[in-house]
Structures are given as structure tokens and as C-alpha cells.
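Look over both lines before class:
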Amino acid sequence: MKGQNPYTIAFGIKPNQYISRPEVVDEIVSTFNSETPPYMACILTGVRGCGKTVAMTSIAKEMKDYSRWIMINVNPERDILQTIASALYENPILKPLFSKADINISIAVAGVSIHQENVPVHMAVTVGKMLSLIKTAGKRVLIMLDEVVNNEFVRPFVSQYQIYIREDLPIYLLMTGLYDNISDLQNEKTLTFLYRMPKIVLEPLGLYLVSQDYKKVFNISDEEAVEMAKLTKGYSFAFQALGYMRWKYDGEPWEKVLDEYDNQLDRNVYAKLWSELSDRDREFLIIMSEGIEDVSMIREKLNMKSNQMAVYRRRLIDKGLIRENGHGKVIYCLPRFAEIIKKWQLFE
């Protein structure tokens, strides 16, 4: 194919060929814009490569159309409250507001050092005062935290965020994260309120939309486009990876495209997912790669009691790796997972 490849295998970048999730974007945008929103914080979650970051980017783009919003992207590996204070202070719309209120905030060149009347002020208190002024101006702040983890920066921020909400301050929070990282954060003694925070699990893309995209880009028949879509199972990264390889290896044997597609799934996603699983989780999935979908048969092969089996089954479902397929049966959520697991077993 001539021209620039319209698909991408880079994470976090919105590709030229992109299938939107209007139901997710509309729900969050409309909720956050409500005068009395039912929630002011939300978590986007799902398996690695399902499109969480791109969905967050789409939401941010929609929110920019509303003048009341001040949006701040924060890095989970840096002091979050410090980042927020700096971003608010440097915002040209807000700066005059702080000056009129005689809040003298100095930002040091090397890092951020916040003072009020030359006396050090606790960062959380300073941000709270800034938010109070923002509220009087009729504006709202949206904090976007991508790939949240349980660390020394996220924990204190999330704990303080709960206080800001109780104080009726106009600060909204949109986070993305993997199931394990969200669960780890929720289990902190002081952060169990996160269990009540709405979570949106990003579902697979519709295969019809995927097939129509492929049909248009590659000028192929409905039948061929449908077969390509089935190979992705609606998984966002797979949609991009298969399209990317089909474009890159145009005119070469389909086996070449499929082999490179498998390599991308393996190197960019599956190997990392596999490394994060327990030995028992892996055994469960290896048995499934043999074509066994019946949960009772998997349990027998694992020599596991029913209550133990339920724990592992539930965990793999929550991780987005498998799903129920009728009574007592499970199947993979991810495309070509069985084939790639079988390849890995050849090197064991």
C-alpha cells in the first residue's frame, strides 16, 4: 500500500484510523457537565491495550469545548498535588484570580515551591484555597491520571481528593488503570472509598465497525473484511496491529501478515500479561489452549477444589483474559491467545 500507514502499534497515540466509543465518552462528558452530577470521579479500566488512554484523550477533547473546564494531566510518578498547584497557578485565565485574592504563590525554577506571604504552606491546603477561588469563578477542574498505580504519589492525592469532595470543591477526577493496579489501590485501608467510585470496563469494539473500517481502507469484500475483524475479537490493539501489518505487507502472503500480527501481540502485550500471572493462572490458560472450555474439566486437570477454582476463574475474568461462554464454559477474550500460548510452550 502507498502512503502513510493509517494504523499504529504505538500505545497512547490516537491513530488516524480510530473507532470511537461514543457511549463511554458521552456518559462521562454529560455526567461531569451536569449541575448536580451523580459522581465526580470515574475509573476507566480493562485489559492492557484495550484503548483506555485513547478513550481518555477523546473525553478530554470533548471537554475542551466547554469553557468552564480547566484540565490537568498528571503523571502518577510525580508529586500530584504539586503538579496541580503549578498547573493552576500558571493557567493564564486563573492567575489574575489568585492575584486579586492576594494569594502570592511563587514557583521555583528547580521544582515547585509554593509559599503564601513567604510562609511555606502545605500543598493540599494551598490547592484547596485555589479550588475555592475557582469555584467562585464558576469553573471546574478535571484531573486526568493515566495508568494509575499504588505509589507514594497516588495514595496521598486520592486520599486528599476525598476531602476536597466533602468540602464541595469543583475538582473532578478521571483515572485509567489495569485491574490489578486499581485493586491494589482500593485495598489500602484509607482508600476503600474507591470501591464506590464508578468504574467503566472498556468492552471490545464492535466487529461490524471493525470490518467496515478494514473494508474502506483496504478496498476489500465484506467477506474478507469480516474475517479480518474476527481475527481481532474487537480488541483495540489487535485492530490496529492487524491493520498495520496488512498495510505494511501488502501484496505478500497472508501467512506473513498473520505471523507479524502474532509477533506484535506477543511482544507488545501478551508477554507482559503472561509475566504478571501466577503459575496457577498460567496453568489454567494453558489447559484452555488445548481446546478445553469446560470449567469442570479444567478443574479436574488442575486437581483443584470448586471454591479454589471459582477464585482463579473470577480473577481471570476480572483481568479481562477470559469470559463466560454459556453455562460452565469459558473462552479467551484476547485474539490468537491460544495460538501464542502454544508457541510459548514449544520453548518450555
In short: The beta strands are 41-45, 69-74, 115-116, 119-120, 140-145, 171-177, 199-201, 322-324, 330-332. Confidence is low (pLDDT under 50) at residues 107-121. The first strand starts at residue 41 and ends at 45.
